[in-house]
Amino acid sequence: MKVRAYVLIVSVALFGMSAGSKKATLTEGSNPGDLAPSIEFLEKDGKAIRFQNQTGRYTLVHFWAAYDAESRMRNVLLANKVAAMESDKVRLCAISLDERESVFAETVKIDGLDRSSQYYMGAEAASEVSEKYHLNKGLRNFLIDDQGVIVATNVDADQLAQRFK
Known about the structure:
The protein is an alpha/beta fold. The chain is built from five helices and seven strands. α3 (101-110) links the parallel β4 and β5. α2 runs parallel beside α5 (157-163). It starts with a helix and ends with a helix. The mean pLDDT is 85.
């Protein structure tokens, strides 16, 4: 009889504690399932760039630099794939981490990229963003849903096409 009473009391106490607990919130990070860190910087012309999630759209944030051949090649492939998809479900936000804007501008021109999806941030902002997104392990990209949650990393052009068929 005493055992049943104990079990009943413990069960009621556990139920009460779980019912009163707050809903878990997402934490900011750079892994799938994490909330994507915010990105804000000023372009040379003073135009403020703020990474904002758009309802109903995914955003592929791709970090690249002219000195990193792999990230540069992936940037061209992703830009061409997004343009060819003609999908309103995903947009590309390619961010150059080059030290000089002149290098960025010339690379975009040589690679034949649409400037509307290519962004350059200064060294100070690049350093902050690199830390938030843990880019010390290498330049990569992040597919972020309309709620600001990272759903995939290091997506290539074929994977992107498969996801948004």
